[in-house]
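TL;DR need structure tokens for one chain.
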Amino acid sequence: MLNLVLFGPPGAGKGTQSQKLIEKYGLIHLSTGDILRGEISQGTELGLEAKKLMDDGKLVPDAVVIGMISHKLDANKDAKGFIFDGFPRTVAQAEALDTLLESKNAPISGMIALEVNDDELEQRLLLRGKDSGRPDDANPEVIRKRIKEYNDKTAPVAGFYQGQNKYKSINGIGSVNEIFDAINAIISSY
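>> reply
TL;DR here they are.
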């Protein structure tokens, strides 16, 4: 089973690369952002709480996200593997994910980080905000908060996977295909 953590700040291209990986390897995409947006569009209690936090550029509680991931794993027992996109975002989440996956005999194969500078991220997100209608991508102040939140709380997760020799980093600036080729070169080493 191939279980990848696709890592990088908001706007790094995780969603774009995930789609290409799904097509090539037949993996199941687990985007916590997509899961949460689904809850928001359905108007669930979790969705309303998540919307308030996301609109402020804050993170949703770990236990809620781990529970959603566990349900997705259980619903796809015959999967060839999973892409974790936007999760884990903290070391505590990485530890919880490892515990969850070990209990299901499906550990993380590796983390691939897309490295993109903050100015490029802001421009990408503002451009995406014009097309997506997502309020968190349209407001430069919220974007900067999200990038700061990533740099402060999420970037340390890389160290967690470095400690397990599962971390690889690539340049997230370039053509979609150049970045995809770099990801595939890493995957072939697993």
